[in-house]
Structures are given as C-alpha cells and as structure tokens.
C-alpha cells in the first residue's frame, strides 16, 4: 500500500502497539469501539453498530462539538478496506434524499506487522475539503498532530482493555 506523505493539508502519525494487526483491525472495523479510539469526547457512540466490511458502506456516529457538547450526527463512507492492513473512511452527511455527501476529509489507518506488534499509521487528510466549509468552521485542521498522537494512545488503551 502506498504511503501518504505529510504536508500542510495532511497529518500522519504512527505508533507501535503490542498486538497483532488482526486484533487492531477488528477494533477499527467496529463502530461501537470508535469512541474509545478518540482522546476526547467528540465521538460518542455508533448509530449503526454493524462491523465495517466493505468499501462504500456508510455508518453513522453520534458526535458532540468540543467545548459546547452540542450533539450532532456524522455519517462516514468506507473508502478503503483491506482486511488486517488498511481501513479508511470519509466523513460527510446524508442529504434529504438519504444520499451520502462527502465532507472532503478522510481518516485512514494503515497496519504493518513488526516484531513488537503492529505499527499503526493514522492519517488525517483534509485536502479535498471545500473552502466554504473551512471558512464556516474557522479553518482546518481543527487540532494539531498531538491529537493524532493522543488518538493512537487511546487506540492502544482500548486494545489493552479488550485483551
């Protein structure tokens, strides 16, 4: 799988977790576990608890704006699914007809077996986000690379609690 390089619109961070790629992938493909892979209280719980299994699958998550706690719903479409290797989704919204409309950013996890367990590489890419949306939310990214580091630490903690 090709590596994604970090630039002014892409953040990439990695961490080695002491478990195998199959276990890591099982947690990432389970929307019910996503709230435990985020370091804050942004992701709340899954609307669609079915495991992710294919590209173009859409799943909904209950979310809350940081600071205010104002709830909202985010739908996500799986855009990459390589069992035990890579999973990616693009957040967006369902329009009035129930069709998915992408927001222009994506989250991707790449997994590589290493002697100590699995190297997990988390990518946040907002390259395709429309300028109007960027202006509406006060610019992107809404956080720095330390958020991705904390997300990977939360993922490791979630994996430990499942063991």
The CATH homologous superfamily is called START domain
Per CATH, what is the topology?
Alpha-D-Glucose-1,6-Bisphosphate, Chain A, domain 4
**Rough outline:** globular
| CATH-level-2 architecture | 2-Layer Sandwich
Average pLDDT number: 90
Helix content: 10-25%
Quaternary assembly: single chain
Instruction: Indicate the radius of gyration in whole angstroms.
Output: 15 Å
Number of domains: 1
SSE order, one letter for each helix or strand: EHEEEEEEEHH
Give a quick account of the main beta sheet: strands, pairing sense, barrel closure. 8 strands, antiparallel
Strand content range: 35-45%
How many angstroms does the end-to-end distance come to?
A: 28 Å
Class, according to the CATH hierarchy? Answer: Alpha Beta
Residue windows where pLDDT falls under 50 for at least 5 positions: none
Helix/strand class: alpha+beta
Count of helical regions: 3
Q: How many beta-strand runs?
A: 8
InterPro entries: START-like_dom_sf (IPR023393)
Organism: Naumannella halotolerans
Protein name: Polyketide cyclase/dehydrase/lipid transport protein
Question: Can you tell me about this structure?
Answer:
By secondary structure, the chain is an alpha+beta fold. The protein has a single domain (10-158), classed as 2-Layer Sandwich (Alpha-D-Glucose-1,6-Bisphosphate, Chain A, domain 4), CATH 3.30.530.20. Helix content is 20%, strand content 37%. The chain contains three helices and eight strands; from the N terminus they run E-H-E-E-E-E-E-E-E-H-H.
């Amino acid at each position: 799988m090709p590596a994604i390089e970090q630039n002014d619109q892409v953040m990439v961070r990695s961490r080695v977790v002491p478990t195998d790629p199959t276990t890591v992938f099982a947690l990432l493909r389970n929307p019910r576990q996503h709230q435990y892979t985020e370091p804050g209280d942004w992701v709340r719980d899954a609307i669609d608890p079915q495991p992710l299994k294919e590209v173009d699958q859409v799943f909904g998550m209950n979310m809350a704006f940081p600071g205010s706690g104002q709830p909202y719903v985010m739908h996500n479409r799986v855009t990459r699914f390589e069992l035990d290797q890579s999973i990616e989704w693009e957040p967006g919204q369902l329009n009035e007809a129930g069709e998915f409309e992408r927001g222009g950013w994506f989250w991707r996890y790449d997994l590589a077996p290493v002697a100590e367990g699995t190297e997990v590489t988390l990518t946040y890419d907002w390259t395709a986000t429309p300028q109007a949306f960027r202006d509406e939310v006060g610019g992107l990214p809404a956080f720095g690379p330390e958020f991705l580091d904390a997300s990977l630490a939360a993922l490791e903690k979630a994996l430990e609690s499942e063991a």
